[in-house]
Specification:
The structure is a single chain. Helix content is about 75%, strand content about 0%. The chain has about 150 residues and is an all-alpha fold. Helix 3 packs antiparallel against helix 4 and helix 4 packs across helix 5. The radius of gyration is 25 Å and the shape is elongated. The N and C termini lie far apart (about 60 Å).
Length: about 150
């Protein structure tokens, strides 16, 4: 898709192609749902159960680290989705959640590339920058470059 063009039909055509490609890919993906553990582990119930517990604990640790990173510095959402990907190697529910998330992110990206949405976002950004510039100008006109607190008086 050419993102530099303002042709309205391009996004719709690309979205239709993505849906077709995704539908073809999902038919193959349906067969891959479930455990991706090696066959010798799947063959032994106790070993497979311990494998699943290990994958769950590892994924949980990564997801918790991602949750901790949300208010702290760090790539919180990336780490959370990494933990979900670890869970998706073994659990169908995590695979379905990741598939749904990927679909929603792709749809949001397609909507963001829509020329009308881009123009609206650029317009709102320019208006916001003008408002901030006016406020900074008023502050500098009223107070000058001096900071509002008096460091020398303390």
């Amino acid at each position: 898709m050419n993102t530099g063009s303002d042709e309205p039909g391009e996004v719709a055509v690309a979205a239709d192609r993505a849906k077709t490609d995704r539908a073809e890919g999902e038919q193959g993906a349906e067969q891959r749902l479930g455990s991706r553990a090696p066959e010798f582990i799947k063959a032994r119930r106790v070993l497979h159960l311990s494998w699943q517990v290990g994958v769950f604990v590892l994924g949980l640790a990564v997801v918790v680290a991602g949750i901790i990173m949300l208010p702290l510095p760090g790539p919180g959402w990336v780490v959370i989705f990494g933990g979900m990907a670890i869970w998706a190697t073994e659990f169908v529910w995590a695979q379905l959640v990741l598939r749904w998330t990927k679909r929603k992110v792709t749809e949001a990206a397609q909507r963001a590339l829509d020329p009308k949405v881009r123009r609206r976002n650029i317009t709102l950004t320019v208006i916001g920058l003008v408002i901030i510039g006016v406020l900074v100008g008023i502050y500098l006109w009223k107070f000058g470059v001096v900071m509002p607190w008096k460091i020398k008086d303390q």
